[in-house]
Hints:
The protein has six helices and no strands. It is mainly alpha-helical.
Amino acid sequence: MAPPREALHKFTASPLALPLTLALLLAAGLTALAYPLYRSDPDVRLLLLAAAHGALFSLVLAGFAVFWVGVRLRRQADIADLANIIEDFRGWPSAEAAHRIRGCIRRLNALQTTRLDLSRCCLRHMDLSAVQLRGARLVGADLQAARLAKADLAGADFQGASLRKAFLWGADLKGATLWATDLRGAVLEGADLSGALLNGAFLDGADLTGADLTGAAGLSAAMLARAKGLSTAQLESDLLRALRSQHPHLLQPPKGN
Length: 257
């Protein structure tokens, strides 16, 4: 497409095209009607100049308003389109579905959207480092071996989800719902799980080195006994007492430290 035609196409597709065209036509019509008076009467010239300035100012304000509304509508349409793609691939246990959903998540994050519905989505082995999923719904999602380092997952709902062998180093899981979540073999080193709900969670082999578990609900000494790295984890005093009484070896620093 030639440059002038391409520019014209972009202009006509813009939300500003209609108001600008109407304004230009109106200005041209008024100019043609007032031109004889403009040449003969100085007072009319001043009035026309004042009117022109006022019209230009109004046009600029209207243009910005139309542009802002157009951007908002375009953003909402983009969010809806990406949500529909996620819906189309929901429940598909395939690599293609995982890649497509990951792409949608990244694009939605770029649109400042985090509260996504990813329930029953397959994201196995996907790299979602530093992803923003604060308050997202991931009920029954498959995140086995996914990379979620430094991810913002605060308040997210992982009920029944699989995070088995997931890499959650430094992840923010404050207040997350992890009921019956599979965290076996997950790396939670330095993760913030304060206030999380861990009722029925599977922690076998989970690495909790330096993790913050203060205020977490549903934890027991029996559950923690299946994890590792507890010597540096932050725990409530009652859990620490129970571990010292029942499993004192778990609180010993690793050999060589």
